[in-house]
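Table S2 (continued). Query chain:
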Amino acid sequence: MASWCHIPTKKIEEIAVDYNPVVCEHKKEEDAIEIRFDEVGGARWRTLQQYEMGTFSARIKCPSGNTSGLNSSFYLSSLEGDKSQDEIDFEFLGKDKGIVQTNYYTQGVGSREIIHTLGFDSSTDFHEYEIRWAPAHFIEWLIDGVVVRRVDRSEDEPFPCQPMFLYASVWNASDIDMGRWAGKYIGCDAPYICTYKDVHIPA
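Corresponding output:
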């Protein structure tokens, strides 16, 4: 395992935007990617390739104001829209900027959500969020260098093993669980900006 910990990362150089490129801007000179949510909606960007393991990180500043209903995310997925996807998530729920949810899916099955109290407002400054994924061994989620959750692979439990893209998105999650999950979208402070800086992916 020590050798895995030393697999290098690099800054992301190119992204693909899956929808609404007009509200997603890659500011290469600033090492930043911005997603704007307004009357057009949000956007989703991803890496150009899938990865079989590694460390994925970004310094993220979530949207400010009344963000009820919004979901801002940073996650791995084998393929969006595939109902048998593997996935590993950080999700910021707009109803409360002091929390983040972690979760993971195997073959389309999730329901492994944990809510973490951040101890800060995710919209006031940049904080580092990191996913370490070694499919033969473990998943770790880190915030500002501190492991907040670890799941070790067990022989009798399914585990995310499919190659995955790194994704990020901002979207209106008002319809999930009748608004109880992320809140109901109000939009009084639109446009909302989520900024991802210093994004690192496996080298």
